[in-house]
Design goal:
Order of helices and strands: HHHHHEHEEEEEEEHHHHH
Oligomer: single chain
Structural class: alpha+beta
Number of helices: 11
Largest sheet: 8 strands, mixed
Strand content: 5-15%
């Protein structure tokens, strides 16, 4: 199925597109997991079906999906292929960020969105490793800056065209300034180091990228923020990342539930009452977590404000999604039993892949600290 920008974009169509892409990605997902190689065939399927331009506005050549529909799509894709879905999530959430910037008059955003649709531009991010205190340094030179440093967790690095990244200007610490920029991976001084050999999400090829005196023109600086603070471009990115990432891990858990249900239903005789209860618990946890994620997106809207209340809302929903995803996959293994222990079982891969969820910022504990601090600050403002 390939949607076109001339068709009205309905939820059912978005989910059907993601399901078709997911089935194609699933054909090679296990092999890439075994070899820790990039899900290249899956990305080709995404290109063929227009999935990577899902969030580009229709007037710029995309399918026009908003935040909610990207969440629906990524959840469905992850049911079939977790690594492919997480890799694509990085590109899709950054596309949503460009849409957010375009709505606020950023002069370069339209060009980026048109390039995604027309030229196949793919965006990666180093935000998970840089976060609020990047180690990469920026030195001001004529016409721009020179970036030097090493970025880790750069998902889909082999396929990406440009990376959204940051560097600290001045001595790291209070008073320093962080620059945010999009850096083409074809820039002189950028190199890829294959480091990705991990427990799960092995097909994302989240290798290191090394910057050696990479020139970044001044007009490519997307924004600035104080060192150590979740603000500016990083805040906008975090708000869009949270629900999309949460959907991926919840989708993996949904796929694990589907597999457990299939295996148990195919067995002769009736399952033990405890196994039936486990199936019910999985279904209940999945439904409530999905409700939470979609309700959080509805609460902030498809054009969320870049403020702390939106961040708390979406990070709280992401926390619930990734924690419940782990619980559901654990239940799926218990319900199926020893058959799930084999490497040939999709449940074994889901068990490993879903462990990646809590590592994404904000972590579950950091999310609780943020929510608690926000509540305390609000209470102290009440006369």
């Amino acid at each position: 199925m390939t949607l076109t920008m001339n068709e009205p974009l309905h939820d059912a169509g978005v989910v059907a597109l993601a399901a078709e892409v997911g089935r194609e990605c699933a054909l090679t997902e296990a092999r890439h997991d075994l070899d820790a190689t990039f899900v290249a065939e899956g990305y080709q399927a995404m290109r063929d079906h227009g999935y990577l331009r899902l969030a580009v506005p229709a007037e710029f050549g995309g399918l026009g999906a908003g935040l909610r529909q990207v969440v629906l799509a990524e959840g469905e894709l992850a049911r079939h292929a977790g690594s492919a879905a997480l890799a694509a999530a990085m590109h899709l959430y950054l596309t949503l960020v460009q849409c957010w910037r375009h709505r606020r008059g950023a002069p370069d955003a339209e060009g980026a969105l048109r390039r995604i649709a027309a030229d196949g531009l793919i965006m990666a991010t180093s935000g998970g490793s840089d976060w609020v205190c990047p180690t990469t340094t920026a030195v001001e030179v004529d016409g721009g800056f020179r970036f030097t440093g090493r970025k880790t967790f750069c998902s889909q690095a082999p396929a990406a065209t440009v990376i959204s990244t940051s560097a600290v200007l001045g001595e790291p610490g209070p008073g320093a300034e962080v620059l945010h920029a999009g850096v083409p991976l074809s820039s002189p001084g950028v190199s890829l180091v294959e480091t990705w050999d991990t427990l799960g999400m092995r097909g994302t090829a989240s290798h290191d990228l090394v910057f050696e005196d990479v020139f970044v023109p001044a007009d490519k600086i997307l924004g600035r923020r104080p060192y150590g603070r979740l603000a500016g471009p990083l805040l906008v990115a975090a708000i869009h990342f949270a629900p999309v990432a949460g959907a991926v891990y919840l989708g993996i858990a949904q796929g694990a539930y589907d597999e457990a249900l299939r295996v148990i239903a195919a067995r002769a005789g009736d399952p033990a009452p405890a196994v039936v209860r486990q199936l019910g618990e999985m279904a209940a946890r999945l439904r409530v977590a999905r409700w939470a994620l979609l309700a959080a997106v509805e609460e902030v809207g498809d054009d969320p404000p870049a403020d702390e209340p939106a961040l708390v809302t979406l990070m709280t929903a992401k926390r619930h999604a990734v924690c419940e995803a782990k619980a559901v996959v654990d239940l799926a293994l218990d319900a199926v039993g020893g058959a799930a222990f084999f490497r040939t079982s999709p449940l074994e891969r889901a068990y490993r892949d879903v462990r990646g969820g809590p590592f994404h910022p904000l972590t579950p504990e950091a999310t609780l600290a943020l929510a608690g601090a926000a509540a305390l600050a609000e209470a102290r403002r009440v006369p």
